[in-house]
Amino acid sequence: GTKIQIGSAILAISEKPHTGCAKFAQRYGAPARKFVMTDEGKQARLRGVNAHVIQDGTVSTGDTITKLS
Q1: Is the dihedral of CA 1, 47, 17, 35 positive or negative?
Q2: pLDDT tens readout for residues 30-62
Q3: What is the pLDDT of residue 48?
Q4: In DSSP terms, which residues pair with 66 in a beta bridge?
Q5: Least CB-packed of 3, 8, 44, 52 within 10 Å?
Q6: What percent of the chain has pLDDT over 70?
Q7: Sign of CA dihedral 46, 50, 54, 59
Q8: How far is CA 23 from CA 15, 26, 52, 55, 65, in A?
Q9: What's CA 45's distance to the chain center, in Å?
Q10: What is the pTM of this model?
Q11: Backbone angles phi, psi at 5, to 5 degrees
């Protein structure tokens, strides 16, 4: 539920972890995918996060990410 702002857009981060997929394994290898799927890898969110848009906005390269709540 953490909210962040990037540019003028506001996003809410999901509690559900983003897990590795076939594309991830192809790019980084099966051992890397296996590691990000462990409890340790999921807790560290090594694969990234899921988020949804709360407020539309413009995001540009170099924009600062600000934690709102």
Answers
A1: negative
A2: 898 888 888 888 888 787 788 999 999 999 999
A3: 78
A4: 5
A5: 52
A6: 97
A7: positive
A8: 22, 5, 22, 29, 26
A9: 7
A10: 0.68
A11: -120, 130
